[in-house]
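Regression test case RT-17, inverse folding.

Input:
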């Protein structure tokens, strides 16, 4: 007996159609075979559904995982990247500001004084040296008029002018001013010039809890003392604005070197016999 080939239909539909027929004509063996075949078909249908469902679930799982990973991606903030060595953090937090201002010194001359004292003369000379190093513009001399001790003021004024002359400061760089002393002997002789001043931010900021620095950043007060020391110790604050310009070469020295080069002689300085002897003794 050949087995019947049944189409792929649902189990419920198959059972409803075959039950009356099996009960009437088919023997027990055939009934068992058909029942087993129906169970097998039902199992295969369920497996196909599960396989399809698993594939869809796996694909959805992969897509969700990819989206989750992409959500974790973020650009690195500039504060977390490598620091700018040309502009460290302490320089940004505590910048040194450079501004122009007036440097001023006053000399009070009592009645009995005949002019500047030795100490005042040294202070005036140092002030003029500072003008040569840091001054911008003209050197100003402020002389009181109507002073009770006019002779001392005149003597001090002449002394300052002599120091300027000895320092080779041209007369065109010096300006003279006067103000009314109103018959007082307290009106001073003033010296002024414009220069650059460097100042840094005030130190002593609240630093907070340094143990809770999870970003490993500098605390707010870091570098403040260093910046203030630099601002106070720098010789000429103008150097912080940019390098100084190079002065022109000596034309006379250039002509001497060029003439020696044309003649084929040594362009270097010649050593005296005493220098040669001292060098040979050191070599021993």
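Golden output:
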């Amino acid at each position: 007996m050949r087995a019947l080939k049944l189409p792929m239909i649902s189990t419920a539909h198959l059972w409803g159609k075959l039950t009356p027929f099996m009960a009437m004509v088919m023997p027990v063996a055939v009934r068992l075979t058909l029942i087993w075949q129906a169970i097998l078909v039902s199992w295969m249908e369920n497996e196909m559904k599960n396989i399809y469902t698993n594939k869809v679930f796996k694909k959805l799982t992969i897509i969700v995982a990819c989206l989750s990973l992409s959500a974790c991606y973020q650009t690195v903030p500039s504060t977390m990247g490598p620091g700018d060595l040309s502009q460290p953090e302490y320089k940004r937090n505590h910048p040194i500001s450079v501004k122009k201002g007036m440097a001023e010194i006053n000399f009070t001359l009592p009645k009995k004084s005949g002019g500047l004292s030795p100490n005042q003369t040294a202070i005036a000379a140092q002030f003029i040296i500072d003008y040569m190093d840091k001054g911008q513009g003209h050197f100003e001399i402020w002389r009181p008029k109507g002073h009770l001790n006019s002779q001392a003021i005149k003597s001090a004024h002449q002394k300052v002018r002599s120091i300027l002359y000895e320092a080779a400061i041209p007369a065109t760089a010096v300006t003279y001013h006067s103000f009314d002393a109103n018959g007082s002997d307290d009106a001073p002789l003033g010296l002024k010039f414009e220069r650059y001043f460097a100042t840094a931010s005030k130190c002593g900021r609240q630093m907070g809890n340094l143990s809770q620095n999870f970003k490993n950043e500098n605390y707010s007060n870091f570098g403040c003392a260093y910046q203030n020391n630099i601002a106070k110790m720098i010789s000429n604050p103008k150097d912080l604005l940019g390098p100084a310009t190079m002065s022109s070469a000596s034309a006379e020295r250039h002509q001497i070197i060029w003439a020696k080069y044309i003649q084929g002689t040594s362009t270097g300085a010649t050593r005296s016999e005493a220098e040669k002897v001292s060098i040979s003794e050191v070599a021993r």
